[in-house]
Design brief:
The structure holds two protein chains of two kinds. By secondary structure, chain A is α/β, with parallel strands linked by helices. Chain A is built from 30 helices and eleven strands. In chain A, the strands form three sheets. In chain A, strands 3-4-5-2-6 form a five-stranded parallel β-sheet, with helices on both faces. In chain A, helix 4 packs across helix 6 and helix 18 crosses helix 21. Classes of the chains: A alpha/beta, B alpha/beta. The interface between A and B is large, with 125 and 132 residues.
């Protein structure tokens, strides 16, 4: 509470606030010298999770318990680090993979450009040592510029791309410097970006930023390798500084063969909009295009959430929230990954058994579950595991370690099936813009799974009396992604179907039942193909027409069969993780927690705090739910409630008067600010009235200040000295 | 779908805005003046402000205490690489410092008071670098690790080098310096350059940030890069309803007009940015005003001759340049004296003026 560690008394008056530390711009609160073992003595406020605390434990074992708790926490922390680093590296690999072709394209262009510059000649020794540029002809002023179209307004997603591009080119022997728009500010001018260049190439900071230093440095590098300067977002750069930079580099291009790579978020017009013509003339542009964000998103979802990666998974609601956040709010892959990390963090913090995931990452194939290896008491662990709601629903076997291990491997098997079906669906819809993220959400939907089950049952009862007009599969959401995929299969040509079946076959390798069916279909297809090719041999014009007819019909029925198969796969094998026992160990489902951690909503929440403060403070004096303002309420809360009755301008006088009348409300005879409840002499009354007037005014002032701090109120201006301005209207 | 909800929300928002506007303009604007309030003497007001009886103290204490159970979670998240961002009504200063001093005992903690009028971010970074350096040194004494070479003292390094030092030097994992920033949206930190530096600081591998915001629009300070890639915020709604004691210290009291402290302070800031000669000219004017409290002000000719004698100005033109500067910042005003002569005066009370002179002296 107190500003210093030793001082334990809480501040009570305003003078306490004015301590030295509070008025220092910054101060060192403590130095981290206390080691972990000593820390336990001062450890306070530990939370205990349900399973760790058995109430029978005697009190003196509390320390021991704390220690155990800490150990478990560090175990989960370790597991988190393991799992997250696995996820993170997977994501990085995926993104790198997506960019490989563009990167190699850029790389070969860089080397071509470099050769072109070199063909202008290498400066000889006296030329090279002079500190001014060499200009032979107009050509020698051309600056090769690669414009990388990011196809994404959100430059934050491409920070990593350009970093990776830099690494890629460095690995190919180029000298690379990455600049950002922060280096091109009007304030720092050309010196800013030059200094940054020198920092990155020479690894040192020089006060005098001069390009001739760079030239002499390059001379020492023997003119062998191209110099690449990457600017990640030119739209955010200061145009004049960027054009100065380009003009300068182009003058020096013979001595320092710089090749410029610029990220463009909008269109190819961007340089024309930013740069003046003299700078534009110096550029010799080439353009490259990166993949669109949705593609990257699909690749990431596939690698991290669908394919086996870390074992960590998210529930349906969380997935839907993350998708909506991506689609309609933030739009960046970065934030999606961040949301995933928050989910992961919360999962490991909340779920005591989450440490199991670590071993899942370590030994993916021959993974066996043994509680003892974690140094935990089996009873506690099992008790927790078998108390999980997903187990309580099914209540199958005895509570033993073996049954748990069995259940976990069953979970793994079901997940493999689910994965295979999802990937089959994804492959089917890939050409038709079926997004994996949408598919993932739908495939994880417990409700529609249950509906599918239910429909299947009722269908059996009705014994296939279903009308032929309903081509829609059982329980599939109309307009949903799965339904779309099934529809697509029906309309495929024989050749396309053959290709697709081949993919399905590969995807379902581990699952005998589906794999067999797919193979069956394939052989049917082959027979069909054989038939038609045989017919091809004895082709006559008349029969030709009928053959086409036949072929269409055949493939239609084949397509139908494939669609049926797909429907069966969806119904029988695509079991969402949330209906499998013990999924809580792997699956994060608390969408509210994720939302509040990811998206703070200060604008609304601070207002709600003020308007409904009783709900937070749980006090007895201010009656809940009643609209009347009571004098016992928080001053700032009263003021803000009163402010709601005003327009955009608040007359300070009126505001004060209404505040005063609320505070002095008759029901508050025991008003706190009045020191003596029963003043006897008239003089006393006057004095105390005066004092309470001062006190009310002071409270008014403080409330106004507090509203000003929260930004909900703007102070009176000179033009309107008697009015304050409201800032927020409605929540 | 959500879109409709969002639309509805936005519609509601704009409707509220126009309703409020209408209420403000159509209904008769209240003609009451602030001066109609019988404002007590300023000193009395300040005394009263210092002794406001707290309300709901017990409930507030209980509320703040209830956040204690979140401490282990906060540490967990810090260790996972997130920055914690606390919001909600009420001062969070005590809460954050309590968290740091009871739960983060293993780590070094530096506190930045963003509610102050000005914070020199470079000084902060130098301080952080020194702490890290000390930690690395003590680590090396224990085990044989390699120290990164730092030739110069930190105070002479550039910001980039300092940040690179904080980012690059490898400590054993799970060892970081925690920066507690009170009011990261406060006046001392609000400019975009400082926020950029803070963001870079937050993204350093050896640094974690725990910050608080109070302003409803604080989130507008950051772009997506800062939020997602650098600060990596983990939001927490932790209203405390504790009074903003220190945070409010620098706001003028709305009922205390001509607050001498405040205007003298702003005047001092303006003056300090001017040349020494200009300051001296101002000093002449101020001293004249103090020694002739009953005069309307100092005549321009008079000021010119005195300034010229002291070699502060060489011509009327230079003096006028200074005067324009003063007038722009409302440090000096003109009025006519009884002789019809234009006089210059400083619109500050005597005590405020004295205080100002000592401050710039």
């Amino acid at each position: 509470m107190a500003p210093s560690v030793n001082d334990a008394s809480p501040p009570s008056t305003i003078n306490d606030a004015v301590t030295e530390n509070n008025l220092q711009p910054f101060f060192v609160l403590q130095k981290g010298s206390v080691r972990k073992t000593e820390r336990k003595l001062s450890g306070t406020g530990k939370t205990r999770r349900r399973i760790d605390l058995s109430p029978e434990l005697p009190k003196n074992s509390e320390n021991l318990e704390d220690e155990m708790e800490e150990e478990k926490m560090s175990m989960r922390m370790e597991a988190f680090e393991f799992v997250w680093s696995k996820i993170e590296s997977t994501i990085k690999d995926v993104l790198r993979e997506i960019n490989t072709s563009v990167f190699s394209e850029i790389q070969s262009w860089v080397h071509q450009s470099f050769d072109m510059i070199r063909s202008l000649g290498t400066p000889d020794f006296p030329q090279a040592t002079r500190s001014f540029p060499i200009i032979t002809d107009a050509n020698s002023k051309k600056l090769f510029t690669g414009l990388v179209l990011t196809k994404n307004m959100e430059f934050v997603d491409d920070l990593l791309t350009f970093e990776e591009l830099g690494k890629h080119l460095k690995a190919q022997g180029c000298h690379v410097a990455n600049l950002s728009s922060l280096d091109f500010t009007a304030k720092n001018g050309i010196g800013g970006c030059l200094r940054s260049l020198l920092r990155q190439f020479l690894m040192s900071t020089l006060d005098a930023a001069d390009i001739s230093i760079l030239a002499s440095w390059y001379g020492e590098q023997n003119y062998n390798n191209p110099v690449v300067v990457i600017v990640d977002d030119i739209e955010r750069c200061c145009g004049s500084v960027l054009s100065d930079f380009i003009l300068m580099l182009s003058e020096w291009v013979v001595k320092i063969p710089v090749i410029l790579i610029m990220g463009v978020a909008t269109t190819l017009d961007a340089p024309r909009n930013i740069l003046p013509s003299n700078a534009l003339q110096r550029l010799c542009p080439f353009d490259f295009t990166l993949g669109i964000p949705a593609e990257r998103m699909d690749a990431v979802v596939e690698a991290v959430l669908v394919k086996p990666c870390s074992g960590f998974s998210i529930g349906h609601k969380v997935a839907v929230f993350m998708r909506n956040y991506f689609v309609s709010q933030d739009g960046t892959l970065t934030s999606f990954i961040r949301a995933l990390k928050i989910a992961c963090t919360q999962h490991f913090y909340m779920e005591p058994l989450s440490f199991i995931l670590r071993d899942l990452v370590l030994e993916e194939d021959n993974w066996e579950f043994e509680i003892e290896q974690y140094g935990l008491s089996p009873e506690v662990t099992l008790k927790h595991a078998f108390n999980l709601p997903s187990y309580q629903r099914v209540k199958m076997t005895k509570v033993t370690s073996e049954s748990l291990a069995h259940a976990l491997s069953e979970l793994k098997r079901l997940q493999n099936q689910w994965r295979a079906v999802v990937l089959c669906l994804y492959e089917t819809g890939k050409g038709e813009k079926v997004r994996l993220l949408d598919l993932f959400c739908e495939a994880n939907d417990l409700e529609s799974y249950n509906r599918r089950e239910f429909d299947a049952c009722t269908k059996l009862e009705k014994d296939s009396v279903s009308s032929p007009s309903s081509r829609q599969g059982p329980g599939l959401i109309k307009g949903g992604v799965i339904c779309e995929a099934v529809r697509l299969v029906r309309d495929l040509s024989t050749r396309q179907l053959g290709k697709l079946l081949k993919i399905w076959e590969n995807l379902t390798v581990g699952i005998m039942e589906i794999n067999g069916k797919v193979k069956e279909l394939q052989s049917l297809l082959k027979a069909e193909d054989g038939k038609s090719s045989k017919k091809d041999l004895i082709v006559t014009p008349k029969r030709h027409a009928s053959r086409i007819q036949l072929n269409i019909e055949d493939s239609k029925s084949l397509g139908d069969k494939a669609a049926k198969l797909l429907e069966c796969m969806v119904r029988d094998y695509m079991q969402p993780i949330e209906c499998i026992p013990f999924h809580e160990i792997f699956c994060f489902k608390n969408v509210d927690k994720l939302r509040s951690a990811l998206i703070g909503d200060p604008r609304r929440r601070i207002q709600v705090d003020l308007l409904e403060f009783q709900k937070l403070l749980h006090c007895n004096c201010c009656i809940r739910g009643s609209n009347a303002l009571l004098p016992s309420m928080h001053d700032t809360s009263i003021m803000y409630n009163l402010a709601q009755e005003h327009g955009d301008l608040i007359n300070l006088h009126d505001w004060y008067q209404s505040f005063k009348s609320v505070v002095l409300c008759p029901s508050s005879s025991k008003m706190k600010s009045r020191p003596s409840p029963l003043p006897k002499k008239r003089k006393d009354i006057n004095e105390s009235e005066n004092r309470s007037e001062a006190s009310i005014q002071a409270r008014f002032c403080r409330a106004v200040t507090e509203l000003q701090i929260t930004g909900l109120l703007r102070m009176p201006t000179k033009r309107r000295p008697d009015f304050a301005q409201r800032v927020a209207f409605g929540l | 779908m959500d879109f409709n909800e969002v639309d509805e929300e936005e519609f509601g928002f704009s409707r509220n805005y126009f309703l409020a506007k209408e209420l403000g303009s159509s209904g008769k604007k209240s003609a009451h003046k602030l001066s109609d309030i019988n404002v007590v003497d300023e000193q009395e007001l300040r005394a009263a402000a210092a002794n406001i009886e707290p309300k709901h103290q017990k409930d507030i204490t209980a509320l703040i205490k209830s956040y204690k159970c979140l401490y282990p979670k906060w540490i967990f998240e810090l260790r996972c690489g997130f920055g914690l961002l606390m919001y909600g009504f009420g001062s969070k200063k005590a809460l954050l410092e309590d968290f740091a001093s009871t739960a983060l005992t293993e780590y070094s903690v530096v506190v930045i008071n963003g509610y102050l009028q000005s914070v020199n971010i470079k000084q902060v970074v130098i301080g952080l670098a020194e702490i890290l350096w000390e930690q690395l040194k003590s680590k090396r004494r224990n085990s044989s690790g390699n120290l990164p070479k730092v030739q110069q003292p930190f105070s002479s390094l550039s910001m980039d080098d300092l940040l690179a030092f904080l980012d690059g030097s490898v400590m054993e994992c799970d060892s970081f310096i925690c920066i507690v920033i009170h009011n990261i949206d406060g006046p001392g930190l609000r400019d975009s350059e400082t926020q950029q530096y803070l963001a870079q600081l937050a993204s350093c591998s050896n640094v974690r940030v725990v910050a608080s915001i109070d302003h409803v629009n604080a989130a507008l300070l950051w772009d997506k890069k800062m939020v997602h890639a650098q600060f990596n915020w983990y939001w927490y709604h932790v209203p405390t309803f504790a009074p903003y004691k220190v945070e409010g210290l620098f706001f003028p009291m709305i009922l205390a007009h001509g607050s001498s402290n405040q205007s003298a302070k702003t005047a001092a800031i303006v003056l300090q940015s001017l040349t020494p000669n200009a300051q001296s000219v101002f000093r002449i004017l101020a001293e004249y005003q103090l020694s002739h409290p009953d005069d309307e002000g100092m005549a321009i000719d008079n000021l010119y001759s005195v300034s010229r004698e002291r070699f502060l100005v060489s011509s009327q033109v230079t003096l006028n340049a200074h005067l324009t500067e003063f007038k722009d910042h409302e440090l000096v005003k003109t009025r006519r004296n009884s002789d019809g002569q234009d006089c210059l005066y400083i619109p500050l009370a005597t005590e405020a003026l004295e205080k100002l002179l000592t401050e710039i002296g």
